[in-house]
Amino acid sequence: MNTMLDAKTLKTVRPDATWPTLLDCAAKEVFKIMVQTDIATMPNSEDGTPTGDTTAMVGLAGALCGVLSIRCTSHTAENITGRMLGTTGAVKPSEVPDAIAEICNMVAGNFKAKISMLAEHCMLSVPMVIRGDDYEMVTIANGAHIALCLEYDGKPIWVCLAAHP
Amino acid sequence: MSKQRILIVDDSSVMRKIIERSLRQAGLEQAEVVEAGNGIEALAQVREGVFDLILSDINMPAMDGIEFLRQLATIESTKSVPVVMVTTEGSESRVVEALSIGAKGYIRKPFTPDQIKERVIPLLGVLR
Predict the structure, then answer these.
(1) Which is nearest to B82 in space by CA: B106, B101, B102, B97?
(2) How buried is B17 (Cβ within 10 angstroms: 0-12 exposed, 13-18 middle, 19+ buried)?
(3) Residue A38: half-sphere exposure toward Cβ, Cα within 13 Å
(4) Which of A132, B10, B65, B82 is 20 to 30 Å from A52 by CA-CA measure?
(5) Does pLDDT of A4 surpass 60?
């Protein structure tokens, strides 16, 4: 049995007031190291709705159940991919979802590593990517939801965590 | 000195490229790098040829890095090949599990090229 998800020892971890800051920090660290870019918190974005036609998602299971997602435009996703690969020219279309999925995976991993109970008792799914913007993300009723809007080259990148209650 | 052969196992082709670039930056410009997208593909590669080092992700579809390590330990010709885990996995127990099966170290994503160099070069015993 996987001890990480042993039901007898598993305790649910509840989001608290520090989580938005930890998620913000986790995302900024990943972009700094893997994309060689400093991203900033976008001002006046508290009430905004995530937009963009590229969404990467990673599921979390265990002490915290939910989904962490990153959403941006395809143009921004292509730019991120190019910087990750260190290329100045065009990137292969197939590499873009791969790169954004990996960024999402690393942000999720980095975030849970910052919370002691999650580091040991929460597992990540293999990431997936949605292309297109004609959809609505319905979050779980009464669950916690954190939505951060970060600025990358003047464009928004949304980092969201929807957690089960 | 013979050219090193290094196997990179990760389900992300972008991550495989980033790891390869980091290896080149670490001084392994001449190394022959072979890629695999999961543990099953990696096992096929190690049965076909000899490697000086394996860098493997943990969370992968089809066969994850832990099972790959277990399988690797059963193959006589690959028992001595150093394996370094490169993973987003923040769980100490998963890392300890990998080390107990035979991994020689781990690098947590996100990583810098310097971290790749620090962990990998000593295992290859070159470019000190």
Answers:
(1) B102
(2) buried
(3) 1
(4) B10
(5) no
Torsion of CA A19, A40, A154, A54, to 10 degrees: -30
Of B59, B93, B108, the CB nearest to A124: B59
Q: Give the per-residue pLDDT at A1.
A: 44
ipTM: 0.85
A112 with B109: Cβ contact below 8 A: no
Mutate to test the interface with A, among B21, B59, B91 (most CBs of A within 10 A): B91
**CATH architecture assigned to A17-163:** 3-Layer(aba) Sandwich (3.40)
Give the residue extent of every domain in chain B.
5-124
* Cβ within 8 Å, pair B91-A84: no
State whether B91 and A102 contact (CB < 8 Å). no
Which residue matches tokens 């002691």? A116
Q: What mean pLDDT comes out for the span A77-88? A: 93
Class of domain B5-124 (CATH, top level): alpha beta
- Sort B49 into a burial class: Cβ within 10 Å, 0-12 / 13-18 / 19+: exposed
pLDDT score, position A5: 55
Closest Cα in chain A to B12: A98
Q: How far apart are CA B56 and CA B36, in angstroms?
A: 9
Q: Are the C-beta atoms of residues A130 and A45 closer than 8 Å to each other?
A: no
B108–A109 CB contact, under 8 Å: yes
